[in-house]
Amino acid sequence: MPCRIEPAPSPPRDARAPLPEPLGWIDGELADLAAGDLLRPQRIRSGRQAARVVLDGRELVNLGSNDYLGYAGDVRLTKAASKAACAEGFGAGASPLVSGHSQAHENLEQAIASLLGVEAALVFASGFAANSATIAAVAGPGDAIYSDERNHASLIDGCRLARAAVHVYPHRDLAALERLLATTAARRKLVVTDTLFSMDGTIAPLPDLCDIARRQGAILLVDEAHATGVFGARGSGLVEETGCDDGVHIRVGTLSKALGAAGGFVAGPGRLVEWLRHKARAWIFSTAHPPAVAGAAARAIELVGRESERRRELRALSAAFRERLTARGVDIGGAEAQIVPVIAGEPAAALALAERLAAAGFFVPAIRPPSVPVGRSLVRASLSWLHSEADLARLADALGQ
Q1: CA–CA distance from 175 to each of 169, 170, 172, 205, 307 (Å)?
Q2: Domain extents for the chain?
Q3: CATH 3.40.640.10 assigned to 75-306
Q4: pLDDT tens track for 299-342
Q5: What CATH number does domain 38-69+308-400 carry, 3.10.20.30, 3.90.1150.10, 3.40.50.300, 3.40.50.620?
Q6: Is residue 257 flagged as an active site residue?
Q7: What's this model's pTM, rounded to 2 decimal places?
């Protein structure tokens, strides 16, 4: 008979010794974050998002908002939200499949589909929920997902939730992506990418990605969070701007950035949206977001269609700002849009730069790991239509120094 080795008995515990405090480990973890300059402050904003913002009682030029078109504080959205709340109440009261889907939500989904020129759209409580739920609904065990290394955390978490094989390819490296696609056997292949990368301000090579997906029989999902409202003749994003409507299968976006409201959406063929209504767990099992928010978002979409000069002027401001920084030898990476990072290196250097800019009157937040790779901490200037040329010229001078 095989010899069985009995485990050694546990040493007796002194009944008088105190048990370890269940959450005591947090103190050490927070101390480690502080030692690495990775603790984040919780600031309190007073008043609306605007060109200038009051944070913790300090008024600064606001380069720390994603309010690209200046709609977050626009009274027209406030009035639209109030009208929807008066008609339908504030809370939705139930999940969308029960009784939470209101006429305001229906109007918003139709407005999104019309803006993007697709058959249907589905509204989620957040862009994060839209990404994580959609990826997990269209890919699973036995499938393969291909994700750009600079993708947003919501895309990354969606890949994890799917329980598929995940392949991360170098940022915008098309050759590496195609090699991975060609050499991986999987039931389904799903390529996921931001169109405008939120930390780098770089743009995905969408026409090439569409060609690769077509050749390799892959589904292409893109996140237009930072591009919606800013790019395209209608303002629908970079898919429209690059003429890739037919090559992109799934389009995700947010209502909380250029549209100035809240929530996220997924848009595409009607059968995709019908599938998500049955499989997107973050949509099925969440209370619908307030009808007032849907009313404000629908109003913002209407304004995006009517006020195209805002995105034209924002893009001109952004181009001029990037040129000023480049002329002064400031490292902005490969930024090519309204998101302009200034690379600092280590977290302490990014914090010091942000504080020097605050002393000069500018709120330009420091971005540190895990939001960016180790060694690539930065300050990120998010430009808005509300900014003046004079303020941006002063900021460029401050950074140049």
Answers
A1: 9, 10, 9, 12, 39
A2: 38-69+308-400, 75-306
A3: yes
A4: 999 999 999 999 999 999 999 999 999 999 999 999 999 999 99
A5: 3.90.1150.10
A6: yes
A7: 0.92
Active-site residue among 189, 257, 289, 387? 257
Exactly one of 126, 198, 318, 384 is catalytic; name it: 198
Q: Is 79 noted as a catalytic residue in this protein?
A: no
Encode 12-42: b = buried (16+ Cβ within 10 Å), e = exposed: eeeeeeeeeeeeeeeeeeeeeeeeebeeeee
Q: What is the pLDDT of residues 185-222, one digit of tens each?
A: 899 999 999 999 999 999 999 999 999 999 999 999 99
CB atoms within 10 A of CB 138: 25
pLDDT tens per residue, range 137-160: 999 999 999 999 999 999 999 999
Q: From the candidates 105, 226, 249, 289, which is the catalytic residue?
A: 226
> Among this protein's residues, is 132 annotated catalytic?
no
